Amino acid sequence: MGPRVVREAVLRIPLPSQELAMAALSALAPEAERPPTDRFSTSLWLEGSTLVLRVVARDTSSLRAALNAYVSWVRAIRDACLAVSGP
Questions:
Q1: Which of these, 14, 1, 86, lies nearest to 53 by C-alpha position?
Q2: Domain boundaries in the chain?
């Protein structure tokens, strides 16, 4: 049997403000700490107002599913925060 291949992706998601980046990090941290499956793991941190997401997965479909979920959640958090902050 050959070496186990893992898939990895790092996304840097710029957000409009440090406050919004911290809100997104706080909202997503519990999900990253306790993923629903052992097929992937996630790390989150901030670089200024940029949310950095690192996903390591067993296979490509798990990587894709995790990335889609996190990007969707970040979009929802951003949209909700911008909606309540007004124009």
A1: 14
A2: 7-85
In 3-state terms, what secondary structure has residue 71?
helix
Q: What is the pTM of this model?
A: 0.85
Fold of 7-85: TATA-Binding Protein (3.30.310)
d(CA 76, CA 2): 40
Q: Quick one: pLDDT band at residue 6, thresholds 50, 70, 90?
A: confident
Distance CA 33, CA 42 (A): 8
What's the pLDDT band for 85 if we cut at 50, 70, 90?
confident
Q: Strands 7-14, 50-57: parallel, antiparallel or unpaired by DSSP?
A: antiparallel
Q: What would the pLDDT profile of 11-27 be if each residue is shown by its tens digit?
A: 999 998 999 899 999 99
